[in-house]
Amino acid sequence: MSRFLVYLGGFASAQYGDARGGIINVTTKGPSRTFGAGLELETSKFLDAFGQSRLGFNVQGPLIRGKKESQTSLLGFFISGDM
After folding, report:
1. Do residues 48 and 23 make contact, with C-beta atoms less than 8 angstroms apart?
2. Residue 3 region by backbone torsions, left for phi larger than 0, else alpha for psi between -120 and 50, else beta
3. Listed range (5-9, 27-31, 49-53, 78-82) with the worst mean pLDDT
4. Which residue(s) pair with 49 in the sheet?
5. Using the 8-state DSSP alphabet, how is residue 47 labeled?
């Protein structure tokens, strides 16, 4: 589960050092227990004269697992790119 919090202006809580400007707090989910990958292709080649294309990809998986196979990963990786 991911969480994205933004605190603008005023005073943030003491957890953020009583910041007076802005705070962006992003919490992401833990490492994946299984390997996975994704691929995405977008194009406007057939819809307009510009013919723009974009390719996106991601790969994720565990690096270090707990002692039992069913346990969550202790350390994992997530790599993504866009062209």
Report:
1. no
2. beta
3. 5-9
4. none
5. T
Mean pLDDT of 35-62: 92
Name the amino acid, one letter, at 21: G
Question: Over the stretch 45-54, which tens digit does the pLDDT of each residue have?
Answer: 888 888 899 9
Q: What does the alpha-carbon distance between residue 54 and residue 81 come to, in Å, rounded to a whole number? A: 11
29 phi and psi angles, rounded to 5 deg: -70, 165
In 3-state terms, what secondary structure has residue 20? coil
Q: Using alpha carbons only, how large is the chain's radius of gyration in Å?
A: 20
How far apart are the C-alpha atoms of 44 and 59, rounded to whole Å? 25
